[in-house]
Write a structure and sequence with these properties.
The chain is of the alpha+beta class. Strands 1, 2, 3, 4, 5, 6, 7, 8 and 9 form a 9-stranded mixed beta sheet that branches. The chain contains 5 helices and 9 strands. The termini are far apart.
Length: 182
């Protein structure tokens, strides 16, 4: 493997499959010879979000990180590290699975709820699988700078990035969600 997609954003090509990756924006957290790990930034899970709201006294959104291991919870946090168990995404953002430390930090106001994003599950690719999908143009790889990974992004993130890419991406950005209706 000559190139790592770690830290890059994947933008899905519109298709008629309607699966979880349709119009997805995926942050690649790790990518090496053994495979890839990422989180979908723009797919809010209203069912799990409602359950979380009933557990806490405040509204908090949970996002579908991907179709793998939906019983696992991941957090992207902006700011100071609250646990020793983390992976740095950028100097300002990190990923952790340390549920107890995150909940304690939120409850003691060490971390503000707006400075974290919760994910259920993740997106994973076996060795060579992501490279194959990129070569088949299932994904467009984008360098996005100054993206706040903790913002409550929805479908506007996918469309916004597509519009910023210009050219043929403008057509995709303005296509209906079900392109068979076009």
């Amino acid at each position: 493997m000559n190139y790592s997609y770690k830290g890059k954003i994947l933008i899905s090509t519109p298709d008629i499959s309607g699966d979880i990756f349709s119009r997805s924006v995926v942050l690649i957290i790790d990518h090496d010879e053994s495979g890839s790990f990422g989180l979908i930034l723009n797919k809010k899970n209203t069912k799990i979000s409602t359950r979380f709201k009933s557990l806490f006294e405040f509204k908090i959104d949970v996002y579908d990180g991907g179709p793998v291991e939906n019983d696992k919870v991941f957090f992207i946090i902006k700011g100071e590290k609250i646990t020793e168990n983390y992976s740095e995404i950028t100097p300002d953002f990190y990923l952790t699975e340390d549920v107890e430390k995150v909940i304690a930090a939120v409850m003691t106001n060490q971390v503000h709820v707006n400075d974290l994003k919760i994910f259920s599950g993740y997106s994973g690719w076996m060795a060579g699988q992501l490279e194959d999908e990129i070569s088949r143009k299932v994904w467009t790889v984008v360098d996005v700078y100054n993206l706040d990974y903790t913002l409550p992004n929805d479908q506007t993130l996918w469309k916004s990035i597509m519009q910023n890419l210009g050219g043929e991406f403008l057509l995709w950005a303005n296509s209906p969600e079900d392109i068979s209706m076009n």
